[in-house]
Design brief:
The chain is of the alpha/beta class. Helix content is 44%, strand content 27%. β3 and β4 (91-103) form a beta hairpin. The radius of gyration is 30 Å and the shape is elongated.
Length: 263
């Protein structure tokens, strides 16, 4: 009996000293325990906390919804983890929390145990990386007004689904801003052209057509042409050229314009 009491006391001391909030609830989601870190987060004493439903105090996005991991843990008898946000005194804090079923000596689920990690710095770092990635994509795929109503999009590197989406967004935005009628997509710097890349290009040209803008693909090398033929890829009605100069000449012709040499 004495050893059990000491063990229980040690476990409670460990929970109290953990630097992250930990709480336990009964089957009705009423709080029966919260450690010092949790009480500090709420700015409340255990007497003020005990008996309240966790949703009333944590006010998170998952509270009162099927996304509540504490409820899921009790229903599934399994550990459940997710990201969430809590709103405490008007301050929104991004968290990652894990919930596990709380059982009695007979193995019956009588509640749940949850611990919370403040991931504010992690989210800030992730957002910074996303912003940097977005900036790099924009820099790597600039849409340039080459001539009156003619825009060129030089593409360098790998064209995956995310890059293709960004290219399309850039092109459509530029078409709207400049009232362009012809856009040249130069793929001379694309690392490799396969079926997936070709399909991305075709979708982009179709999108520009819906905006009332014709699309020309330049930079089609002999190797790329052979690859497209071997793969049986048909670019349909898309106008293609091997060089940007030829593409520009074609674009001017579409607009009934020509470049003449000065004598």
């Amino acid at each position: 009996m004495g050893n059990n009491h000491m063990s229980d006391r040690l476990a409670l001391d460990v929970l109290e000293q953990l630097p992250t909030p930990v709480m336990a609830v009964d089957s009705d989601l009423k709080i029966i325990f919260m450690n010092a870190a949790g009480r500090g987060l709420l700015g409340m004493s255990m007497d003020e906390i005990e008996g309240n439903k966790c949703a009333d105090l944590m006010n998170s996005k998952h509270c009162g919804t099927p996304e509540c991991r504490m409820k899921q843990a009790m229903e599934k008898d399994a550990l459940c983890t997710a990201r969430n946000e809590v709103n405490i005194d008007g301050k929104v804090i991004p968290i990652e929390y894990s919930a596990a079923p709380l059982k009695d000596d007979q193995g019956n689920i009588v509640g749940g145990l949850e611990y919370v990690l403040d991931i504010t710095e992690r989210v800030r770092h992730e957002n910074k990386l996303m912003e940097q990635s977005r900036t790099i994509r924009e820099i790597s795929t600039p849409a340039i007004k080459l001539w009156d109503r003619i825009v060129v999009l030089p593409v360098v590197g790998v064209v995956d689904s995310m890059r293709a989406w960004q290219m399309m967004e850039t092109m459509l935005t530029k078409i709207t801003e400049t009232s362009s009628k012809v856009i040249i997509m130069d793929i001379q710097g694309v690392a490799a052209v396969d079926t997936a890349v070709a399909n991305h290009l075709i979708r982009i040209t179709k999108a520009t057509k819906l905006m009332g803008c014709k699309c020309i693909i330049s930079g089609i090398s002999s190797a790329v042409a052979q690859t497209l033929v071997q793969l049986g890829i048909d670019l349909g009605e898309v106008v293609t050229h091997s060089t940007l100069q030829d593409a520009l000449t074609e674009a001017l012709a579409m607009l009934n314009q020509v470049i003449t040499k000065m004598k």
